[in-house]
C-alpha cells in the first residue's frame, strides 16, 4: 500500500503496523539474502544483469523502447501507445514447468503479478502503469519478455536439486516489500553487485584460506662427554600447522668446532606431516678427554616446500667437561687478603713462584683473559694464547700457574681490562646466550682449578648495557653450577665514588642474582679536575684512594639495601697504580701505600691489590712503564707494605721453577746493545747486531705498525707508512730468539714469536 492510498481512518495504528511489517520484512529479506549467499544448496548467479542499459530488451511491438525509464516518460505524451504496450502483458499469468524451465544467466524470480491482484489505480492510468511494470520486468528478466537469452551469457543448466535464485530476484523481492516497484535496472544492478560482494565476504569468513606457515630452527647445548657420542638437539618448528606436507633441507657447518673431531657432519631433509608443527634434528657430538674450550657449530635450513623460512640457522654449543690436572693447591684465601695484579700477557712469561718469593705474596690476580679472533677466551686476547694452545708462550703460562699453585699459592683469573674486547662484549654482539658465556667461564674455572674470578669492566665496556646484562645472567648461572666461585667486580672510580655506569654494573649483577664477593675500585686515573694534586685543594694519591673507598662504601650500602642485602667493608677492594701513572701528576708513593694499608686494617676491607707486581721496581724517574714504577724506591718496596695484609700462606719455593725466563725455553740475552725501534721518518739504519747479547726494544709499538722480511742474509724491519727501516746486517730469523725482543705490547710479542717459531728457532 502506497502512502497516498492510506485512509485517514487507518490512523496511527495503521501506520505503525505497516512500518513494523516492512521493517520485519526487510530483516527477513536481508537474512534470506545472506542465507542464500552462504548456502551451498542455493545457486546464486553473479553475472551482469541482462536488463541493463547495455543489453536492451528485444522489441515486442510496433515501437521499440530502449529502456523502461523511457517507457515511463512516454506515458504522458503518447497515450495512443498505451493499448499497444499493454498488450505485451496480460492479466493471466503464463504457466511454465518449474523443473523444465531452461537456466540462463539471470533466472526469473516470479511471473508478473496478475492484474486482479495489483493495487487499484484510476482507469486512465491503470493500463499505462501495467505497461511500464511489464516493460521493467521484460528488461530485467528475459523469460518474462519471452526473449531467449544471448548465447554469450547463457549458463549451463543447474542440477534440479538446487534451487535457482539470482541476486536480482532477491533484491527485487526485498524492494517490493517496501512498495518499490518498477525501479530502473541500473540501481537494481548496483544492489545486486553489492549482494554478490557480501556473499563473497561471508564465504571468506566461513571458508578462510590457510596462510603458508614459516619454519624456524633453534640450537642447544650439550656436555661433550669423555667417549662415544651424545646427541645435540636442534628443534625445527612451524609457525602454525599446515594442511599439506611441509619439507625443508638442512646441513651442518663448522664454527669453532670441527666436523669429524668434535661432531659428526650431517645433512638431510625434515618432513612435517599435515598437522605436525615440531621436529628435532639430532647431531652427534664426539666425546673425548682432551681439555679444550667450549666449541660451536651451526645447522642451516634451506629449500623449503610448503613454507617460508623465518630463522635460517642456529648454533649448537659443545661444552667442555674435561678438567686439567693442577698439582697441589692448598692455599686458603680467608676474609681479607693482598692479591696484586700480574700481566700474564707480558713476555717473558712471568714466573709466578719466583715473583712470590721476591715480593712475599701468596695470592696473585692474573690479567687479562679476553675474546680472541675465534671468539674464545685467551690471554691478552691472542688466539695463540688460548689455554689449550701448544704455543710456547701459552704452555709457559700454564706451567707458571700450575707450579705456583703446587707450591701453596693461588690465583684469581681476571677477565676484561682496559684494552681489547671482553668475552661478554663479543658474545653480546654475536647474539650468544648467557648459558654459552657461563660455559666459557666454567671452562676457565675447570682448566686452572680456581675459585676466584675478577671482572675488570672499564672503558667502553662499562657503558655497554647489552654485555653487562649478558654477563650478569651468565655469572648467576655459573654460580648456580659452581657455588664456591667468588666473584669480584673491578670498576673505575672517582674520589666521589663509582660513576653512574659503574653503579649500573653492580645493580645489574645484584638484580640477576649474582653473589658478589666485593667491588674493587681502581684508585687511579682521576684527572686533575677531579683529584687536584696542586693548589689549595691538593691531596696525595693515598688520600684520594681512601676517599674513593669511603664514597663507594656509602653508595653500595644504599644500593645493596635496595636489593634487601647488607654491604660491608669486607666487600670493598682497592687497587692503586704504583708510582708514576700515565697521568704524570698522579704519583702513588710508598708513603701513600702505607696510609692505604693502615686504612684497610682499621676498616677490615676485603682486598688490597696494586697494578702491578712487575712495576714494583725502580726505573727512570718520572716515566711510566710496564716494568718499573718511575720512582727510585728499591724493588719490592710496595709489596713489603701490602704483603702482610690479611691471610698469607707459606709457600714451598722448592716446588719447581714454574716457567722460565724468556718465555719457557729461550736463553736470556744480556750484556749487549739494546736498540729502540721508533717512528723516526726516513731513519734507515743498518745495525751490527749480535744475536747472542743484543736486543730490539719495540716499547709500545703494535704488531700492525711494522713488517719483518728476510733477504738472502739479513733481517729487515720496516715501519709501516713511515719510510724507515732497521736492517740486521748478516743476521737471519733462524739466528734470533725471543730473548732478543723486548716489547710492552702483547701483540708485538706474539707476532715475533710466530715469526721465530716458523723458523724452528725456539
From TrEMBL:
Compositional bias per record (Polar residues), positions renumbered to this chain: 77-94
Disordered: region residues: 47-130
One Pfam family per UniProt: Calx-beta
Limits of the Calx-beta domain: 202-302
GO biological process: carbohydrate metabolic process; cell communication
Cytoplasm as UniProt keyword: no
Record SUPFAM superfamilies: (Trans)glycosidases, CalX-like
Biased composition (Low complexity): 51-64, 121-130
UniProt keyword annotations, A-Z: Calcium, Repeat, Signal
GO cellular component: membrane
Protein name (Swiss-Prot/TrEMBL): Calx-beta domain-containing protein
